[in-house]
Design goal:
The protein has a 7-stranded mixed sheet with strand order 3-2-1-4-5-7-6, sandwiched between helices. It is globular. The longest helix has 20 residues. Helix content is 34%, strand content 22%. It has a single domain, classed as 3-Layer(aba) Sandwich (Rossmann fold). It is of the alpha/beta class.
Length: 230
């Protein structure tokens, strides 16, 4: 299991690196991280974007405090509700491993479209339901790893090393996407897709997984997509 945890951590690192590769400059404008966690990744993204102002949205009080200590302006807000920004006021958004925890994905994407400035962009990342490790799980009759069926316990796959704690401030995974499903839903809500890649590739390490996802763009561990406001 330690080996599996290490592979997961490597895939998550490659996913973060891939997100940063697709973060564009906001030229001193506003960058928002929806689900900023402790703010460590938010700081990297803000530096990459050249943000003049960075705001993190977070629901967990411990993460709110940690991100604030890093100098991030944090708002403790439920991401299942209206975002605390004016229409067309945000130059860039990132959201990493958040949308899968939400029931109302339509509201989430509508709100992203609403707050983005003309020409503004969002980089979204989430688990890939069509990744080969999920396909293999189904072939074996097991539950795909990111596809939770309970709010109390993670069951159905003996290799699942998900460290998400049932009962924490983040709910268990609600909706898991293929790249096509996420793209079509985002486009339905007025976002234009311009990047559609995957990151991480079990059981491969960092270097080999990058090669694999270039050759096979549909079956990596995580989806990374960038959109512009239409």
């Amino acid at each position: 299991m330690d080996r599996i945890r290490k592979l997961y951590a490597t895939a998550a690192e490659v996913n973060n690196e891939t997100i940063l590769e697709h973060v564009e400059s906001v030229r001193g404008g506003l960058l928002v991280d929806l689900g900023c966690g402790d703010g460590a990744f938010t700081v990297e993204a803000a530096r990459r974007a050249g943000a003049g102002r960075t705001v993190g949205i977070e629901t967990d009080p411990a993460y709110v405090a940690a991100a604030a200590e890093r100098g991030i302006e944090v708002r403790e807000t439920d991401l299942g509700q209206r975002l605390p920004f004016e229409d067309g006021s945000v130059d860039g958004l990132i959201s990493n491993q958040v949308i899968e925890h939400l029931w109302d994905t339509d509201l989430f994407l509508r709100e992203i479209r609403r707050v983005l400035a003309p020409g503004g962009y969002v980089v979204l990342s989430t688990n890939n339901l069509a990744s080969w490790h999920n396909v293999a799980s189904l072939v074996l009759g097991w539950q795909p790893m990111p596809n939770h069926v309970s709010d109390e316990v993670i069951v159905g796959n003996p290799l699942n090393v998900d460290d998400h704690a049932p009962g924490s401030s983040y709910p268990m995974h609600r909706r898991i996407f293929t790249n096509r499903a996420l793209r079509e839903l985002a486009e339905h809500h007025g976002l234009r897709n311009e990047v559609d890649v995957t990151a991480g590739y079990y059981p491969l390490g960092r270097r080999c997984s990058r090669v694999a996802t270039r050759l096979d763009r549909r079956h990596g561990a995580f989806l990374v997509q960038r959109y512009r406001r239409r």
